[in-house]
Amino acid sequence: MTTIDTEVLVEFKRRMKLGDDEDDNLLRILKASTEDLQAICGDYNINTSERFKELVFERSRYAYNDVLEYFSDNFLTQIVNLSVAKAMEEESE
């Protein structure tokens, strides 16, 4: 189960210039984005990987603005790079 801590939520709200009235919705979006990208890219931790966090925030931004259908095409390079990095990391272990 993916959990999004308060620090990540606050950072995302600051970035998106959002208030406190949407916390439940934003947590749901961040959680869904994290889970979706972990399924694609590997088991990254949003609290320890800045590259993964950036991708989660971008996917969440697209979801929040109701244009999620464009995310994969626009961020394909970053998604593939994270997937390959995780595969190489697991191979070397």
Number of strands: 0
Q: What structural class should be given to the helix and strand makeup? A: mainly alpha
> How big a fraction of the residues is strand?
under 5%
Q: Give me the Rg, rounded.
A: 13 Å
The number of helical segments is 5
Low-confidence stretches: none
Largest beta-sheet details: none
| Integer count of domains | 1
- Could you estimate the helical fraction of the residues in percent? over 70%
User: Separation of termini?
Assistant: 24 Å
Mean pLDDT: 94
Query: Would you list the SSEs in sequence order as H and E?
Result: HHHHH
- The global form is globular
Task: Please describe what this structure looks like.
This protein has 93 residues and is an all-alpha fold. The protein has one domain. Helices cover 71% and strands 0% of the residues. The chain has five helices and no strands. Helix 2 crosses helix 3. The protein starts with 5 loop residues before the first helix and ends with a helix. The mean pLDDT is 94.
Q: What is the element layout, followed by pairings?
A:
Blueprint (H helix, E strand, L loop, with lengths): L5 H11 L6 H19 L8 H15 L6 H4 L1 H17 L1
Short structural summary:
With 93 residues, this protein is an all-alpha fold.
